[in-house]
Amino acid sequence: KTHVPSTFCRFPPVIMMMVLLLACFTRPDAADGGGGRSRLAKLAIGAAIVLSGSGAVASGSEYNLRGNPATSPAAGAQLLETTMTTTTRSLMSDDFPANETVAAPELVTAEVCDALADTVGSEHVISVPQQMPQPYYEAKYGVAQITPGAFVSPETGEEVAAVLELARAKHIPVVMRSLSGHSHAGRSTVDGGIVVWMNRFQNIEIDSVRQEATIGAGVQLGKLYAVLAANTPSFVFPGGTCATVGATGLIQGGGVGLMTNMFGYSSDNLISAKIVVFKQGRYQEVEATDVNEHSDLLFALRGGMGGNFGAVTEMKVRVFAKPSAVVEYKFARTGDYAEEMLSGLQIQASQLASTPNAKHRMRVKAKPHSVEFHGMCWCEPATAAAATDCKGCYELAKNVSAPMYGWANAAVSVWNSSTDESLFNSCLGAVDVLQSKGGEAAGDWCVNHFNWTEDTYARKSLYATHAILNSSNNMQTLVKALTQNNSDGHGFLYMDLVGGQAMHSEVPNAFLHRDNMWSVSTAEGSDEWASWAFGVLSRASFSNGESYQNFIDAELPDWFTRYFPDAQVRARLQQVKCKYNPQNAFGTTHVAHMSVPMPAVCDHQG
To answer: Which helix (H) or strand (E) holds 537?
Structure first.
């Protein structure tokens, strides 16, 4: 690698030497029994560490040397002294036997920056906060603004392994980030540690014969959709509806979107994965398939939550022939209708619940004073003997929408559109996206104009049985969740109907939410409202006690059970983690409790 001295990591050497000399010639502190350095010396050494590096923070929340205004000088001195001590860590690894006392985590110093630059090239190491991609992560969960010590962009699995080895040797906290950082709990960032940014893993290769696509860990959904659509023949992948979400991260949490009922969850269509894991005493890249020694790892990657088992570099997924047309329908109504406002849900549920249609997708967007239903049905694709057939979809749209005609302040529309329009309109919420994209490819327009920023909001989710709509009391509960503590009206609920192919998986899968039901989630609004609404809904009888893990919620006390309701699956995930990630890496202090917990006894170690 071309190495340029990491001046952005360094403090002038002269000042460094002055500080260290001060430390060397300071008398021992009497309180230490004459055997240790004085407090001034410790502060001097600590200052040297801070001045030499980018100001990274150790993995514990008690370490904070970034000059945060919330940290008083006295507290800062205490924290500096804390970093000079040792800490006991219980890590399931041959390198770190249980209960071994090891040095406190180091900071991302100039030497660390140089080592990172030697590994990936200095142009791919960023330690100046103002140059780091957003979001770092906003103040939340009782911690101040989270700012990494360094962003590092490797290009190969070998470089990923080298970065992880360095972080392990220096006891520096490290997390993975595909590209945009969409974790609602901020698990793709870490205060003061190293963010392994997979932005250079942009490869997409399509095997048209086998109907498979290989995608790098930095590829966003918008780019994937555009490349698949531009291929001859055109393909689709059942991913999510936000273009800037990383595809491989989505798969690791399940992945739901427009085509879920037709083709299954994203995780159902994962064929194999390349991933850097801790194996035989070091980090190395392995390939996990259903038939090799790492089949348990592939099981965990299908919905078992990212940031737990290793660093994914590449995934191979199943893709599907793109239907040329879809039929969409939209029903919208505004006004203060309270319970009546939602009665249309009851009508649609009765039409669809008994016979879940694999080619039909329905989403409800419920606000305090309006409700909108959006349905989409995939037409029968053209064959050698017949053209594309949308008659069945028109019939379904008519049956579902018919009872809503004639309502006051209501509008119903049914139309036919191309698959491309449907995908990107849903992604951006803009009907005229293809007309307004200014000549760019649709996927690039999606990504370039709708990048995620630090303006984040809490996302709460639960799964509800059809009983949610079957009684006046239940619908009143729904209205209560929407209207109370939501005075600005910004908060709303998404309700997605789960059915069809989503109800079962043909491959071993850690994603367990398979009933014919409603997936309910909060969106936008204040964090306080989201917590209130979730509390109201989760206590209701229609909640089945499950939640969607890609809407990761750091305030969910029983998250492991809600995300993985099967005890055997939970135990299996714990063993996979113990086998491939014995150091419990990829955690971040502010949401450390959101990692798959280590088992009491580890059956296998890497």
So the answer is: helix 527-538
